[in-house]
Amino acid sequence: MRLAALFLLCLIGCLKPSTADAWMGIACGLQDGKYRCVATLKQTSPTPNVNRAMNACMNAGMTNCQSFGPFQGGCYSLAVAPNGSMIGSGTGSDSSEARHRAISECERTTAYSTCREALTACETSTIPNDSYTSSQSAEPILILGNGPPSSPPPQPISPDDLFDFGAIRTGISFGIGLIIALFAYAKRAPLINFVIHGNLPQKIPVYAEDIQVLFKRTQRVNWYGRVVFGIIARLSMDHKQFSLVRKYWLGRVIAFDSLRRQRQNQLSRMHLQLAASLKPEQSDKKPSSWLWIAIKYYFFLFFYLLRALISFLIGFLFIRITIAKLIRGKLVESKDLVLLLQAKDAIEASAKYLKEYLTIAETFDGREELFEPE
Q1: How many Å apart are CA 165 and CA 180, to the nearest integer?
Q2: Lesser CB count within 10 Å: N end or C end of the chain?
Q3: Is 42 helix (H, G, I), strand (E, B) or coil?
Q4: Does one domain contain both 103 and 218?
Q5: Do 170 and 99 meet the contact criterion of CB atoms below 8 Å apart?
Q6: For residue 201, what is the DSSP state?
Q7: DSSP code of 207?
Q8: Contact, 107 vs 85, CB < 8 A?
Q9: Phi, psi dihedrals of residue 290, rounded to the nearest 5°
């Protein structure tokens, strides 16, 4: 019985049509504004089959030829969306099943409900009216399938079709930059005065025949009952001395920095020096260790730079007195009376230094000086 069943199976296999071993290839391209496809049938080897389909596509004058396959057995179908993109494909035991699967996949993928068949070919297809054979050999059958209509249905208009958002963004950026440039040009005098002279007044607020500082002592009680001491320092001078302060750019000269501000400035400089002194470690270890060395280097570099920036910004919270601020009048307050007295001494020393500086600067007027050593 087993031998009889085996013989029967072999007999069935031998009686199977020879077309079952045939291969099928498909190539599609654009022709006259619509997709058309070529299918090669009854080819006994896969690679020449695909090559014949591509040659047939190009010989037909199609552009952007694209191959599909090779396939063996059954039917294969391609469906095209209304916008011309070839999306859906499907296989089946017969042409209707393959066609249904291809159209369903196209409509599901592209969200269109009007996908159309581009080509359906089966292993046992016969030559239809719209077909031709290869010029190289008459052996394979070439089926030419019509694609969708050359004029696809109109699509909904999107906002991108009405507006060029890239040009709009470029125009907005150019407009903002132009406004900033015009504003900076209109305010160039105050900006220059702030950057160079530390916001020095255009006219001297308090006139005096010589450089002098007027101090006014105050005290108040803050919201939680603590006494806060204060002094109002105002530097006065004559018009000539004031013009020399502007001429020699002395408005930003520091008269007093609190110890806390000095400390933050020192920390900022120290971390900048540490960041500048960092160097990657030299190692002859495995390449994996180099990754760890690079991570460590960039981590500490970022840490030191960030720490320097934080110290620099914190320094603005503490007291700094410049010549320009003294000319405008500066209120200095602190709960620490010693700190306030230190600020007063520093202001007095700065006023003395400023007077000597202006006196000596006026001597650089081309005069000659003779020095005779003893």
Answers
A1: 23
A2: C
A3: strand
A4: no
A5: no
A6: -
A7: B
A8: no
A9: -65, -35
Distance CA 17, CA 141 (A): 17
- Tokens coding 285: 């270890």
Number of compact structural domains in the chain: 2
Residues 355/211, Cβ–Cβ less than 8 Å: yes
Say yes or no: 70 and 195 in one domain: no
DSSP state of 16: S
- Residues 326, 208 share a domain: yes
Statement to judge: residues 202 and 123 lie in one domain: no
Q: Name every residue whose Cβ is closer than 8 Å to that of residue 57 and which is 6 or more positions away in sequence.
A: 27, 28, 29, 38, 65
Residue 44 tokens, joined: 């006994």
On whether both 107 and 215 belong to a single domain, the answer is: no
DSSP H/E element including 119: strand 116-122
**What's the rounded Cα separation, in Å, for the pair 339 and 348?**
14
> Do 84 and 223 fall into the same domain?
no
With residues binned 3-state (H G I as helix, E B as strand, rest as coil), the percentages for the chain, rounded to 5, are 45, 25, 30
Residues 6+ apart with CB under 8 A from 133: 140, 141, 142
Residue 84 domain-assigned (yes or no): yes
Is residue 280 one of the residues assigned to a domain? no
Note down pLDDT in tens along the chain; length 374 residues: 444 444 444 434 444 344 445 677 777 777 766 677 777 776 667 777 777 878 877 777 777 777 777 777 678 777 777 666 666 777 777 778 878 887 787 777 766 567 777 777 776 655 443 343 333 333 445 555 544 443 444 455 555 555 677 788 899 999 999 999 999 999 888 898 888 888 899 888 888 899 999 999 999 998 888 999 999 999 999 999 999 999 999 999 999 998 899 999 999 999 999 999 988 776 556 666 778 888 888 999 999 999 999 999 999 999 899 999 999 999 999 998 999 999 999 999 999 999 999 999 999 988 888 888 88
